[in-house]
Amino acid sequence: MQDLDHSTRDVGQEAGEDVKQSAERLHDDARAAAESVAARARDEAGQQADRARTGVASELSGIARALDTAAGELREGSPQEQVFGQVANGLSGVSDAIRDRDLADLASEVSAFARRNPLGFLGGAALAGFAATRFAKASGTPRTPADASYNAPSAQSGAPASASATTPETRPGDVTAPAVIPASHLTPGDH
């Protein structure tokens, strides 16, 4: 009977050790799989950040070239030519800085600038937001022939074609110019 108790105890201990070893292997395998997934996610995020950084640098470089070209077409020495040239040089420098530095360096520099000059940072952030909004609107859905028919006179509306030619329909968000009265219609007392 003692042998039976002793062998039962041995089998129980062996089974316990087997379960413990299996749990440790399972834990190690799960940790290795999690580390592998995390490493792949970090690599993918880094690659996407690099692509975004390169894209932003290219866009800024293109804008800088366009401003430089515009500055070259303006009268030399004019205030507009000087401003366009300075902005082009600044954007070119920013483009090179973005292209040549890694994301962590850029983030720490932006953070340091924000601490040194919070008002300038907020102004720059607002300007970047406005620029991003303008860019998003400009690169939105292009007008299609169906959109053109929105402003075209309709046979069902009963409005004569000449009425739509003088007062075009507008959509919400359209920018309209103020009415201009030709100078020939002004009399000496009108201003």
Total number of helices:
6
User: Strand-and-helix sequence, N→C?
Assistant: HHHHHH
Task: Give the C-alpha Rg.
Answer: 34 Å
Low-confidence stretches: 152-165
The helix content, as a percent range, equals over 70%
End-to-end gap:
123 Å
- Shape, principal axes of CA atoms: elongated
Strand content: under 5%
Whole-number average pLDDT? 76
Number of strands: 0
How can the largest sheet be summarized?
A: none
Coarse structural class: mainly alpha
Can you walk through the features of this model?
With 191 residues, this protein is mainly α. It has a domain of 66 residues. Helices cover 74% and strands 0% of the residues. The chain is elongated and about 110 Å long. About 7% of the residues have low confidence. This is Nutrient deprivation-induced protein.
